[in-house]
Amino acid sequence: MGVTRLLLVDDDRTLIRVVGAALEEEGYAVTLAYDGRLGLAAFAADAYDLLVLDVLMPELDGLALCRRIRLTSRVPIIFLTSRADEADRITGLETGADDYLVKPFSTRELVARIRAIGRRVEREPASTAASLKVGPLEIDMGRFEARWHGAGVVLTRSELMVLHALAKQPGFVLSRDRLIDLVKGGEVVITERTIDTFIKRIRQKFHAVDPSFDAVETVIGVGYRLREAAR
Prior knowledge:
A five-stranded parallel beta sheet has the order 2-1-3-4-5, sandwiched between helices. It has a four-stranded antiparallel beta sheet with strand order 6-7-8-9, with helices on one face. The chain has a two-stranded antiparallel sheet with strand order 10-11. Helix 2 (36-45) packs parallel to helix 3. The chain has helices at 13-25, 36-45, 62-70, 86-95, 107-128, 157-168, 176-183, 192-209, and strands at residues 5-9, 29-33, 50-54, 77-81, 99-102, 131-134, 137-140, 145-148, 151-153, 216-219, 223-226. It contains eight helices and eleven strands.
């Protein structure tokens, strides 16, 4: 079905009213919220296909809002921000965002990114809905869930996609470039450093569930593969 219902959260009322009107002209159903707490309340009250969140907001900033939402949902999220450096992009992606758009931006670019995510969402059920089990590791891409010995491991969408790519080819090493191709989707900016960050977070999250298990093995100068204990 793709993306049809959008929630826009930004304290710049003029900006999101203009953007919201432009998105409605493109055929989207749009709800506006003017700070993070109002955005959280709107998200709890209704169902949305995609969220567009400003990073810097009063009451509850976009990063904190994203973290709250990721406790219960894998809904696609695009961050809006005035910060353009790579460290800020990585922070946003690490928090759980699917894309990152720097202000000022054109509505056409935002629409293009929404459509790119929509195409990816439409492809996912056909290509990755089935559960994948590798030893005690279970991955359900339909529900976007991971379990280790039955215990849930909370991963972001991108982290889960990286883990799923490694688990589909246990024993094989995937290069950073290959993982970038598998994860990026559309216009999302993913770099080798971003992949390293995803791997670091995957390891940390599995370690929190099982301190004796290092989920991903680094093959120096080549890339990453699923750790032997999971196979």
